[in-house]
Amino acid sequence: MKKRLLALALASLTLTGCAMMSEKECLNADWYALGLQDGTDGKNLGYFSQRLQACSEHKVAANKSQYLKGHAQGLVSFCNYETGLQQGEYGHTYEGVCQGSAKDEFMRGYQLGMKTYQLTQTYQSYQNQLVQIDEEIAEHKEEVERLRQELKQLNKSVTHFNHSDTKMTYDEFRKIERTRLETERQMQKDMLSYKQAISELMQQRDEVLELIDGSKNDLLRHQNSYR
């Protein structure tokens, strides 16, 4: 399950690049093969315009008729249920290239696949929330431990303090003690705030875990409905 979700996530990040061509590519172009490639990939005729423009800049003519023949043949491989399903699962944008009954078959698969993609995105979003919550909990726990150690050190220093061995006046000693108490109270207050934050985050964590289970079940039910 996790491997499949990862594969879908990685595939959803793949972007279709522009059909730019170098001078050498234009001079050696097999326009039927280029059309076949673009059609098989589900690219619309706007890609021919991009290729045409690129080759025009190199003063090389494009063979539109051969490109269109290849493109039409490529669409035969693209416009079917299986490809539509795959395109939808990867979250790819459909460029409206299919026609007639082939379009109906493609869209049937594409809509099922797109729902899988959307459910996968929801599942991953909750997983990301869980990771973020766990990181915040860990950070707060570190702060609590830091404050606990500082309080321990503060109290230890006071325990070993011997007023009789100093030349401080009583008022000076009281002033230091007041400062220590204020510091201790603030540290305890900060520690309490962190503990409260941890408690709230733990509650959020439980809620997100329920959402993860629910979204995972929704995804599995949907996939099982057409597999």
Overview features:
227 residues, mainly alpha, 0% strand, disordered N terminus
Write the layout of secondary structure elements.
Layout: H1 2-12, H2 23-27, H3 31-40, H4 46-57, H5 64-78, H6 81-89, H7 100-159, H8 170-224
Helix pairs in contact: 1-7, 3-5, 6-7, 7-8
Kindly describe this structure.
The protein has eight helices and no strands. By secondary structure, it is mainly alpha-helical. The protein has two domains: 16-78, no CATH class; 122-224. Helix 6 runs parallel beside helix 7 (100-159) and helix 7 packs antiparallel against helix 8 (170-224). The longest helix is centred in the middle third of the chain and has 60 residues, at 100-159. The chain is elongated, with a radius of gyration of 33 Å. Residues 1-19 have low confidence and may be disordered.
Order of helices and strands: HHHHHHHH
Low-confidence stretches: 1-19
Global structural class: mainly alpha
- The number of domains is 2
Instruction: Quote the distance from N terminus to C terminus.
Output: 14 Å
Main beta sheet strand tally, sense and closure? none
**How many beta-strand segments?**
0
Q: How much strand content do the residues show?
A: under 5%
Mean pLDDT: 87
Quaternary structure: single chain
Rg over CA atoms: 33 Å
The tally of helices reads 8
Shape: elongated
Percent helix, as a range, is: over 70%
